[in-house]
Amino acid sequence: MQLEKPDFTDLLHIIANNFKAKPANLQFTVNSTYGRGYFWAAKLPSGITIIVSDTCLKENLIIERPEGDKHYFTLQFNEEAADETDVSIKSKRNNDEFQSFVKLSHTLVQESFVFPAVKRLRSVKFFFNTSHLSSLLSKDAFDVIINQHFPLEMKSEKLEPIATEYRVMLDDLWKDDLDQPLRLNYIQNRVLLLLEKYIVKLHTRRDVRGKKVKRNDDETLRLMKVEALLVKNFSINAPTIEELARISAMSSTKLKKDFKALYGLPVYKYFQKNRMLKAKSLLALGEYTIKEVGQMVGYSNLSHFATTFKKEFGFLPSEITAKDGMLVYNK
Question: What pLDDT does residue 156 have?
Fold first, then answer.
């Protein structure tokens, strides 16, 4: 199957046709014959198109996008779930593969979009162009990003992990029924934040000289598995360093050193920061009480939760309210 133009709403219809599904409002659920999960797409007020999925399929689904003449970039966030699938197939899963990454590409180069069999994969993909970038950047920054950073990044074969900066916005999008009063504006806000965070991280990484840890792709994949396990379920305690070291097949010392180098924070500080970001995201939904949110991120003591939240963000959970998926500071 092929995607002929840079429009992810078109891709949704191609995928739906493959699964013999009829999309309603640009979304559909995968029939159990083919696996499980969902796809949805949207065309945003800015013109950006996005497709979001959370699937575990019985057979690989590969969409080819041929080289085109329209100048669009694609930013992909693909995260393999750390838990095992319940999809029944004959072939065995290759545990050495772990498809969690951030990837930048351009429509002038042929590309494949892969939705793998057996594995549960959550994905956010969107097309954007230079006009979208220019609305976020000054002219000087725009020139550096377009002429220096983006070309180097697209040539690089190094893996870019999904880290703290992205996770809250991605979790806001990974929903099969995104029910918001201003749905398209809500989605666009998250997409532009993802793009902004990507540019900031890219600029920082490209400007850093030296202080690089020697680490091969296999070790990076193992660290990504550790990160996925850390943020899998905040309602329970994080795995111990010894457990994570065993899972990653690294010594505790190497794990702690390499994890901090890759993700910018020590293991447990990373867990705690993501825990609080998850709490903030849940509060933004406006669907839960502060006590309920505290319990959902592992706090039985409301006072302890409030104190920890204030330490992270500078204000108490009680000093904010949610409106259309955004937090408003009330103090």
Answer: 79
Q: What is the CATH number of domain 217-329?
A: 1.10.10.60
The distance in angstroms from the start CA to the end CA of the chain is 54
Task: Please give the structure tokens belonging to residue 235.
Answer: 């309602």
- Residue 257, number of CB atoms within 10 A of its CB: 15
Tell me the Cα Rg of the chain: 20
Using an 8 Å Cβ cutoff, are 244 and 270 in contact?
A: no
For residue 210, the model assigns a pLDDT of: 41
Residue with tokens 């030296």: 210
DSSP helix/strand/coil, 273: helix
Q: pTM higher than 0.85, yes or no?
A: no
Cα-based angle 121, 123, 127 (whole degrees, multiple of 5)? 155
d(CA 281, CA 189): 14
* Chain position carrying tokens 């319940």: 86
Indicate the class that CATH gives domain 8-207: mainly beta
* Token duo for residue 107: 């429509």
For the chain, the domains span 8-207, 217-329
Reported as a single tens digit per residue, the pLDDT across 68-106 is 888 999 999 998 875 444 443 333 334 444 567 899 999
pLDDT, tens digit (0-9, with 9 covering 90-100), for 49-67: 999 999 999 999 999 999 9
Give the model confidence (pLDDT) of 216-265 as tens digits: 667 877 888 888 888 888 999 899 999 999 988 999 999 999 998 888 88
The C-alpha torsion from 22 through 28 and 30 to 33, rounded to 10°, is -20
Amino acid identity at 177: D
3-state secondary structure 295-331: HHCCCCCHHHHHHHHHHHHCCCHHHEEEECCEEEECC
What Cα–Cα distance (Å) separates residue 103 from each residue in 126, 154, 157? 11, 8, 10
Backbone angles phi, psi at 98, to 5 degrees: -145, 110
Cβ-contact 13, 47 below 8 angstroms: no
